[in-house]
Write a sequence for this structure.
């Protein structure tokens, strides 16, 4: 297991180093391509602008993916909450004696500790909103 983790770390580091080399080479190539036409200062500014555009584009794509993932998670959570009452209904239908015992235990607990039950109901009401 440790070997797999180390292999993943080494592979990720190698890929990151390769990407850094590619970005550096592309930046230098762009600089060398435009320096004869507009001068060294403007060429450096142009390369910096191109790098900023690439970074902002990458950030935009990552943000879109994150929003998509959050939307999918919210849909899955809503689906789970919609299916939960049906699952509880199945439990009640499959195990009526256990359900009766749990209901009786809840009633005894409510009679014995009403403040605890009030607090539990308030907590449950907060999650329903």
């Amino acid at each position: 297991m440790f070997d797999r983790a180390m292999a993943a770390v080494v592979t990720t580091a190698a890929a990151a180093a390769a990407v850094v080399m590619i970005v550096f080479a592309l930046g230098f190539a762009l600089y060398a391509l435009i320096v004869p036409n507009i001068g060294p200062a403007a060429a450096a500014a142009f390369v910096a602008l191109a790098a900023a555009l690439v970074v902002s584009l990458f950030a935009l794509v990552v943000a879109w993916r994150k929003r998509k993932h959050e939307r999918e998670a919210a849909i899955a959570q809503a689906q789970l909450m919609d299916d939960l009452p049906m699952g509880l209904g199945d439990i009640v239908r499959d195990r009526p004696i256990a359900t009766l015992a749990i209901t009786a235990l809840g009633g005894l607990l409510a009679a014995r500790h009403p403040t605890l039950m009030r607090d539990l109901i308030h907590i449950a009401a907060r999650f329903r909103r």
In short: Helices lie at 2-38, 40-94, 96-112, 114-128.
